[in-house]
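Z., the sequence and structure:
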Amino acid sequence: MRMVSNLAMVQYIVLMCFFGYGCTKNDNGSDIAQSSQETNIKIGFLKTERGDYSAGDQVKLESFIIENLSSTPVSISSVLVSIKDFSLNRVLYELELMTDVEIEVEKTHQVSGRSIFTIPSDFKNEPYGVYIRTIFSDGSAKEFYKTFFRVKDNQTLLTYKIDKEDYNGLSVYKLRGGLSAEYTIQKATASFASAISHTWTTPIESVVSTPDFLERSINYTVDFYNEAVGSTTPIETVIISTGIPGVQYLAKNMKAIVLPLHYLVASGTVKEAQTILDQANNTGYSVYGTIGHDFSITNTQSVGWIKLLELPEQYKKFINDHQVKNVILLGHTGTNDGETAAQKVADTRSKYEAGSLYLMRFSGDASDGYLEQILSDYNRTRLSAVTKVADWEAGIIPEQIDGFSNTLKAETGVTVTSVTASDGVHLWNLGTYTSLALAKKNQAIFEVGGPAVRGISTNQYMLGNPGYESYIRYIPFLYFAGISAEFQYDNWLGTKIKSAINAYFPDIVFENLTFWTNRLDMDVLLRSKGLTVRSSNYQEGQIWNLGNGINSLTEVRADDIINTTTPSAFKSWNESLQYLDVSDLEDISNRFPEIVVTAK
């Protein structure tokens, strides 16, 4: 192991160029210096023993192969591993792994795994690239980027976390990291357990990249559910879905658990995101990915969505262990081309093929500027032409629906139903429709003490407490805060949602309902129309933080459960309900044809 002098490296390259060799800076296997000797080789899949290390830990490289793709034997005088920082692309350490390697035509040579160096105390908490450099017997050389590892400390978030707190006997779930998909896990658990939950911490904590990010996330999801609801507790229905806002209400109204079909990760380089995909696809998972900026976090840090093309073994085991009878596949099918403009990282993979990666162009022509500031290697990345890609937050593609369905029916014996819509907004309204259907199915219970529907909770984006709202006989109106309150009222709340309420309960007068708002512009608009409005503390959102009093929406609602009933009575009420089943979803589809329910 040795620290490499940048000056020495420059001198080496200059000398090679001086003696007539062509030089290039491509780090994905192109020549540093070329000669007449054939040097067409391939470095096989390579990973470190772990994806993350702390100061003082030993980094171990697992074994890998070198394959001769030339038409003649290849003679390698030295095989070296280099560690680089991604930010400046500097070589920080280099170690010679072996010398004098001869590989016959169409043969491979295995390089044994070994510890390569110890993390110094001055290494920053960031990702570091692992490169293999081969120097051939004629002095020419090639360098291959292969993987990375993450240096971390105790504060580093490597996957999302859901903490649990007890509030006077009421369980409160609190999400750290992740976004919409991970949020649905928290919300589904809270509803299933007759608990309550906030949205996520503010500012939103980023889940940083490691090559094994996907496996970590899947394992955490299954382990979390098993601890929260019991490792063998029967679960009637599982929903496999994106993080579309309506899914949290579908889960509550079917008493279902949500297994995400993608997970969110922050990635400062295209290399990190591509490595996550490559490691997943080389270790038993089938995935593709998208990456871009997200205004809900920051414009200076990327977010990537790692998306399952096949069901992981952990999901199938979970479904079997919990004796699941029904699986719902939920998502926006959009157009044939997809829902969001994107550019594919240029390679030989076809659209949605395992390992393919797309850079999302959320901001049109301004996207280049955003992508350049969030991905340090953006300008060194070859991209295909602009296309459209599905499955950012709402989308599900036919390959996922068909593949998941076939696997589930063959390996679990469940009944599979897809619930889709051609426009994502209809799946937001699914929250309203299923909440109304639940109230209708349990009308005798819901009408105790008053009408079955007594108010509407106007929840922008992901806000909401499905179990509590159902208990107080409120239905949700889910809307995107980036569009004006006037548009939302004129096109949805005062029209489509009003009509849906009367379809289930003709005697309910929309104008007599109470509207519980959690955004100021909606509050002002509804008051201007003479409607009864209950306001929230708009500065606090739904964050759980009792240190500054009972003021956020979630805190107020939890306190209401404690003061008007008891956690056990709240749970008993939920358990008295007859929850929705597939036939109820089919009825919803008949009432609202934009919701497409299909038996698979």
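The two ends are 57 Å apart (CA to CA). The first strand starts at residue 28 and ends at 33.

Let me know what you think.
H.
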